[in-house]
Amino acid sequence: MAITINPISPVAFSVFGFDVRWYALAYVAAFICGYWLFRRLMSKPTSMVHLSKTDLDDLLTAVIIGVILGGRLGYVLFYDLGYFLSQPLEIFAVWHGGMSFHGGLIGVISAVFLFGRRKHINAWSVLDLMSVVAPIGLFFGRIANFINREVMGRPTDVPWAVVFNSDTPIPRHPSPLYEAATEGILLFTIMYYLYTRTSLRRHPGALGGIMGMCYAVFRMFCEMFRAPDVQIGFLTSWGLTMGQLLSLVMFLCGLGIFVFAIRKK
After folding, report:
1. Confidence band, pLDDT 50/70/90 cuts, at residue 95
2. Does a structural domain hold residue 113?
3. How far apart are CA 132 and CA 134, in angstroms?
4. 125 has which bridge partners?
5. First to last CA, the chain
6. Residue 237 belongs to some domain of the structure
7. pLDDT at 83
8. Minimal CA–CA distance to 194: which of 128, 124, 97?
9. How many domains does the chain have?
10. pLDDT at residue 206, rounded to an integer
11. Where in the sequence is the domain holding 71, given as residue range(s)?
């Protein structure tokens, strides 16, 4: 029997008529927690990254811009280009939803490399440290997806299937929670252990490559329970989704980065 849940409003609260949404709060929580952990790990003697307070603030600004621009443009290009070409102003309506992790990742990598070039800092080492804190953002983001009833799972009869009151009565996999557990909690545990307990951080880029591969595996697994995007559907007759295709490319890129980092002296 499915678990029935009363829907939660996507608006957390309002201030002077301005709606503050759970999705926005998820981003804020992710940046605050990530900033704190980044500073904490960077302060350790074994850290390969040493930034001043000013440089760290500049990095945070660059990452925020990279996440938002990259995530939005990634969604436009990868998931619904035809619609946005016909409604170009909707590209800027981020409050309507629509962010791509893969696009956001490209945006962050670009921002970090521009930051590293301007500050004469090894961008690969910065990305390695960021790969430890990134799953925190993924966790909060997927919880917000569940609250908003976005990217929900495929129909199922498993005991933990969920049905939201006033929505379709079809029980579905709570796939955002699967992703919060794997791409968030499990991935964070793996990356934190590798960063603090191994010497991989001494190979700039190695941890970033591992993070890319692990995320890709977890995402491809979770996509088997997640309903495909309505505007795209399955890409093949045997059920390949856009998320799986992008994750496969991400896995290969992560593998190449890892091999290069390990071999480079």
Report:
1. low
2. yes
3. 6
4. none
5. 57
6. no
7. 84
8. 128
9. 1
10. 97
11. 21-198
